[in-house]
Amino acid sequence: MADFLVALADFDLCRGWEALGHANLFAFIRSELGLSPAPTYWRQEAARLLQRFPDLEGPLRHGKLCLTTMAELAKVLTAENREAVLPRFLGISTREAKEIVAELQPREAPATRTMVTRVPGVALVSTAAAACGSVAATLEASPRHPPQTDISQPALSPPAPTGAPPSQLWAPKVDFGGVVAPVARRDEIEPLSADRSRIHVNVSRHFTRKLEAAR
Fold first, then answer.
1. H/E run at residue 190
2. Does residue 55 sit in the same domain as residue 92?
3. Where in the sequence is the domain holding 179, given as residue range(s)?
4. Whole-model pTM above 0.90?
5. What's the rounded Cα separation, in Å, for the pair 56 and 62?
6. What percent of the residues of the chain are helix, what percent strand, and what percent coil, each to the nearest 5?
7. How many domains does the chain have?
């Protein structure tokens, strides 16, 4: 991986992707290497971090930095804060790196998640459809959307009772054909700042440590 990232940094510096007909490094990695967006982003950011700080090749080769922690480090490392920031990223996990980034670049207004739950007797409408002026009555009256008693439509899971644990919650996945299927949410803790994280609500870092201990 170290050899690859060093070569990728040089390749990007000389704009090798342009000679091959790509708009940028991201497009080259996605098209030529067939990687998904997240791994593509990690490699791009790590390569460009090596362009700015070539001496990071040493910690990378010795295992003190990995691909994902370098992508996080790239968000906050500057020539001015290097002495204070870089040592904090050596030998840590991606999760810990994200916490440091959240501490250094706290988000005052984190993005919110909209959860849609099923109400008995009312058709589900996607956010996009609602924005276009569609309403539940229109969907129910349309011949393209037969009643939910029709066996040709996939059955929906019943709504979770009030106070149900997170494992029982679900969010609908709606495609443009009107098919609604329950999708299980994966438990995630996303750091927002030095002492705040998000599960579906904002909690303190102390809370996340207690939750990890409980798990």
1. strand 190-191
2. yes
3. 127-184
4. no
5. 10
6. 45, 10, 45
7. 2
